[in-house]
Amino acid sequence: MSRDQRLPAQIDTEHPSPARVYDYVLGGKDNYAADREAAGRVLELEPHARDSAVENRRFLARVVKHLAEQGIEQFLDLGSGLPTMDNVHRVAQRHVPDARVVYVDFDPMVLAHARALVNPDEGVTYVHSDIRDVAKVLEGARGLLDLSKPVALLAIAVLHFVPDEDDPAGLVAAYARQLACGSRVAISCASTEDVSPELIARIRSVYDNAPSPLYLRPRDRIRSLFGNLELLEPGLVHVTDWPVPSGTPRLPLTMLGGVAMIP
């Protein structure tokens, strides 16, 4: 029996999935021809796209480590994608053994892996939902997280798949309103900064047939995703420069990231 014949019927292998494209770019094996083709087109347009994905993943690990060291013990990872290097719970639990992590995604392939990955007794669970369904996500998260205590809301490389008409800033605000004072909001997003309009258009076209098209945004629009929340130092920066400048050369595909606190 072929691999595709073993797949649940709801997994669409004919069109690229952002989670599986990301998996392929990071060196994973949980992807299909459509995903590899899409990733190949992006890499042909910009060979450093893989570097941007890797640096974004490193940003996530640094954010989780930093927040765990500051005493955050609960993490809500929106658009978590497929399991890959330095999963949130592994990073968090290295620093806070009792840390609890809820992963959220709506890709059926992620669900298939999550069934083997999660264990509430070990502080890890998964909510299968579109992140835009805030009520459903939080209902599922409450099975493991205590929302009366600080939570780290992670929206890493996911909001650039939420179109403007779905109000990504309003989405973040809806989550933030339900979280306790002292919670953190971490966001990274693909940016148009220092990227030519031609390259932006061609990269976006790769995702035309994907379930979630790609929306690169200018710096001020990414900053607005945090709403009125005050960004922690060093503010909204290239993901390589958080929490301190790294000296890493600027990547042609810009990923901006930052962390804010809920007062």
The gist of it:
Helices cover 35% and strands 15% of the residues.
Helix-strand blueprint:
Layout: H1 18-25, H2 33-45, H3 49-69, E1 74-78, H4 88-95, E2 100-105, H5 108-117, E3 124-128, H6 134-141, E4 152-156, H7 168-176, E5 184-190, H8 197-206, H9 219-224, E6 230-231, E7 237-238, E8 255-261
Parallel strand pairs: 1-2, 1-4, 2-3, 4-5
Antiparallel strand pairs: 5-8, 6-8, 7-8
Explain what you see.
By secondary structure, this protein is an alpha/beta fold. The protein has a single domain, classed as Rossmann fold (3-Layer(aba) Sandwich). It is built from 9 helices and 8 strands. Strands 1, 2, 3, 4, 5, 6, 7 and 8 form an 8-stranded mixed β-sheet that branches. The longest helix has 21 residues, at 49-69. The protein is globular.
What characteristics describe this protein?
263 residues, Rossmann fold, eight-stranded mixed β-sheet
Distance between the termini: 55 Å
Question: What is the chain-wise order of helices and strands?
Answer: HHHEHEHEHEHEHHEEE
Q: Provide mean pLDDT, rounded.
A: 88
Helix-residue proportion: 25-40%
Oligomer: single chain
CATH class bucket? Alpha Beta
* Overall strand count: 8
CA gyration radius, whole angstroms: 17 Å
- DSSP strand content: 5-15%
Q: Predict the CATH topology.
A: Rossmann fold
Low-pLDDT residue spans: 1-9
Q: CATH superfamily membership, which one?
A: Vaccinia Virus protein VP39
The helix tally amounts to 9
The major pleated sheet works out as: 8 strands, mixed
Q: Looking at the structure, what is the overall shape?
A: globular
CATH architecture annotation name: 3-Layer(aba) Sandwich
- Helical/strand content category: alpha/beta
- The tally of domains stands at 1
